[in-house]
């Protein structure tokens, strides 16, 4: 089973969902703008991806939203995750997680294949 965090208006999300359907793997959809992830869910995804919050942030969206981003520093990690939870548009998409814990930002074919194979 795979969970996909998506924004239906995002072309990369639609491609990822089409790939999931074509593969026949079971998956659930989370419209993360309607159901924002908690700080702990974001921290968990970051841990599995091996990324820092600023690596997963859509900084151009922050500008559009009129948000000031914290410094890219370990001391600001909590501020980043809270800001991302409160403003889920800041989160890179789509994020896919397989039941074995494999997690990817599914913006390319290789990442999608890796999570589908794990699903």
Give a structural overview.
This protein is an alpha+beta fold. The chain has a domain at 1-32 and 93-119: 3-Layer(aba) Sandwich (Glutaredoxin). Helices cover 46% and strands 14% of the residues. It has helices at residues 11-23, 39-49, 53-56, 59-65, 77-86, 109-118; strands at residues 2-6, 27-31, 95-98, 103-105. The chain is globular and about 40 Å long. 27% of the residues are buried. InterPro entries: Arsenate_reductase-like, Thioredoxin-like_sf.
Topology:
Layout: E1 2-6, H1 11-23, E2 27-31, H2 39-49, H3 53-56, H4 59-65, H5 77-86, E3 95-98, E4 103-105, H6 109-118
Parallel strand pairs: 1-2
Antiparallel strand pairs: 1-3, 3-4
Helix pairs in contact: 2-5
Q: Which blocks of ≥5 consecutive residues have pLDDT under 50? A: none
Number of strands: 4
Largest sheet: 4 strands, mixed
Per CATH, which architecture of the domain at 1-32 and 93-119? 3-Layer(aba) Sandwich
How is the CATH topology of the domain at 1-32 and 93-119 named? Glutaredoxin
Q: Could you state the order of secondary-structure elements as H and E?
A: EHEHHHHEEH
Indicate the overall shape.
Answer: globular
What is the overall pLDDT average? 95
Q: Tell me the name of the CATH homologous superfamily of the domain at 1-32 and 93-119.
A: Glutaredoxin
Rg over CA atoms: 14 Å
| CATH class group of the domain at 1-32 and 93-119 | Alpha Beta
Tell me the number of helical segments per DSSP (H or I, 4 or more residues long): 6
Strand order of the largest sheet: 2-1-3-4
What's the end-to-end separation, in Å? 5 Å
Strand residue percentage: 5-15%
Structural class category? alpha+beta
Q: What fraction, in percent, of the residue positions are helical?
A: 40-55%
InterPro entries: Arsenate_reductase-like, Thioredoxin-like_sf
Organism: Nocardioides vastitatis
Family: Belongs to the ArsC family.
Protein name: Arsenate reductase family protein
């Amino acid at each position: 089973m795979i969970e996909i965090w998506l924004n239906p208006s995002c072309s990369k999300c639609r491609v990822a969902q089409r790939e999931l359907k074509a593969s026949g793997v079971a998956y659930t959809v989370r419209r993360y703008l309607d159901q924002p992830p908690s700080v702990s869910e974001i921290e968990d995804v970051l841990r599995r991806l091996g990324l820092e919050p600023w690596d997963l942030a859509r900084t151009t969206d922050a500008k559009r939203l009129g948000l000031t981003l914290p410094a890219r520093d370990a001391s600001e990690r909590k501020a980043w995750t809270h800001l991302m939870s409160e403003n889920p548009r800041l989160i890179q998409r789509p994020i896919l997680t397989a039941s074995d814990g494999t997690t990817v930002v599914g913006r390319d074919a290789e990442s999608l294949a890796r999570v589908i194979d794990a699903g």
